[in-house]
Design brief:
By secondary structure, this protein is an alpha+beta fold. Helix content is 29%, strand content 30%. Strands 6-10-11-18-17-16-13-12 form an 8-stranded mixed sheet. A 5-stranded mixed beta barrel has the order 1-2-3-5-4. It has a 3-stranded antiparallel sheet with strand order 7-9-8, with no helix packed on it.
């Protein structure tokens, strides 16, 4: 008999199920085992001496095989299929689980996040945790779908670099044979070089930042949605980002009604709003919200969400002082850089890039960076490099904001921060 998945159960079927014992209720002459597989959870009913003897051996989260008949039912329990149950004829324990270090089947029991992360391979079995990563998987797929439809090519970039890709000193050093190298902060330089030859490129890239923060919104290893396009400026690429985020959210709404319900999330496709940096600064002064000279403060980002809820707020014409060396200057101290703010937090930054070697060299020197360390990057713009622009958007950051989760570690399967390098 071929295996049947829980989502495919229909009345009257004789079925073979594989899964884990999510919950066990032994009533002596009758038992209910909630069986979980990758598609859902169903109640299984066991009667008779032989089956009850097996139930006595069974432990929570043991892997089991069940044979039985599907019956119509009216099940009232969180996360279980409510319309059917399985009357069991045979149960076999495939792999018996030892005593669990964390609670899996009681959503009201609060376990410390650090303990949950220590046992992430078990934590992911909880319906609420699983829902997060099912949604994140759809977000990744939707990002790829959208940009393939836009005519972009997916690319893979190196993670080992010989010099800082963004300036600054927050780099992880490594030994590479006889040389010192760094783990990449960004694929920025590589995606620019490729866009200048192939026009439209995208990737999902892992970034490392050796910053000694320990906040609920930062990681030392994170993922980014990265995109770069030739023959365009920052406004065109803001349009791509705008449509991309909306497409991702549309796909989440289309595919994950149940998971959003499990997480108690009310999600809407956002609107869009565009401001110059100077306009945001003026607005914050009126609202008496403090702002940094060339950056948005956390309070300013939150205020934008308060004023424009369910809106992606694009802040452009950014001061050149607040942007990295590869952002195109526009005169009067401004740049072609932008940030995108959503639900009170920055989700992406981007802009038009410098494609003129002399300007690149000048901006590197102004930031105390040596152009010699960027020779291959600068040289790539000497052979017909067009104007181009792009963005980088945090995978985990967007996930936590869409789902209303307060700590970014909740949306990373195996997070890496200052203190955590296992499991």
């Amino acid at each position: 008999m071929e295996r049947t998945y829980i989502k495919d159960l229909k009345e009257g079927q004789e079925v073979l199920l594989n899964g884990w014992a999510y919950d066990i209720r032994d009533l002596n002459k009758l038992a209910f085992v909630s069986l979980r597989d990758m598609t859902g959870i169903v109640q299984c009913v066991l009667k008779g001496e032989e089956l009850m003897a097996k139930v006595k051996e069974l432990t929570i989260e043991s892997a089991v095989e069940i044979k039985g008949i599907v019956k119509v039912a009216n099940v009232k329990a969180d996360f279980l299929r409510s319309d059917v149950e399985v009357v069991v004829s045979e149960i076999n324990i495939i792999s018996k689980a030892e005593r669990l270090p964390i609670q899996i089947n009681d959503q009201n029991v609060e376990t410390e996040l650090s303990t949950r992360l220590d046992n992430r391979f078990l934590d992911i079995r909880k319906p609420k945790v699983k829902a997060i990563f099912e949604i994140q998987s759809t977000m990744l797929q939707a990002y790829r779908e959208f940009l393939i439809k836009e005519g972009a090519m997916e690319a893979i970039f190196p993670s080992i670099i010989g010099a800082s890709s963004e300036g600054g000193t927050e780099l992880f050093k490594a030994k590479y044979f006889e040389r010192e190298v760094f783990l990449s902060q960004s694929c920025q330089l590589y995606k620019q070089m490729l866009a200048c030859s192939l026009e439209k490129v995208f990737t999902v890239f892992s970034v490392w930042r050796a910053e000694k923060h320990n906040t609920s919104r930062h990681l030392n290893e994170a993922r980014q949605y990265d995109y770069e396009e030739a023959f365009c400026d920052e406004f065109k690429v803001m349009g791509v980002l705008d449509r991309c985020v909306k497409y991702i959210i549309e796909k989440v709404l289309e595919k994950h009604e149940n998971e959003l319900k499990i997480l108690n999330v009310e999600l809407k496709v956002p609107k869009s709003k565009y401001f110059k940096f100077s306009e945001v600064k003026e607005l914050m002064e009126k609202k008496k919200v403090p702002m940094e000279g060339h950056d948005l403060s956390n309070d300013a980002e939150k205020k934008l969400d308060e004023l424009y809820p369910d809106t992606i707020v694009f802040v452009h014409d950014w001061p050149i002082e607040g942007k990295p060396f590869y952002i195109m200057p526009k005169g009067k101290g401004l740049s072609g850089g932008f940030d995108a703010i959503y639900k009170g937090m920055e989700i992406a930054s981007g802009g038009q890039r410098v494609h003129i070697p002399k300007i690149l060299e000048k901006q590197l020197k102004e930031r105390d960076l040596d152009p010699k360390n960027f020779k291959s990057y600068i040289d790539s713009f000497r052979f017909g490099a067009p104007p181009h622009a792009g963005f980088g958007m945090g995978v985990e950051r967007l996930t936590m904001l869409i789902l209303g989760i307060q700590n970014i570690r909740e949306v990373v399967l195996f997070p890496r921060d200052r203190t955590r390098i296992t499991p």
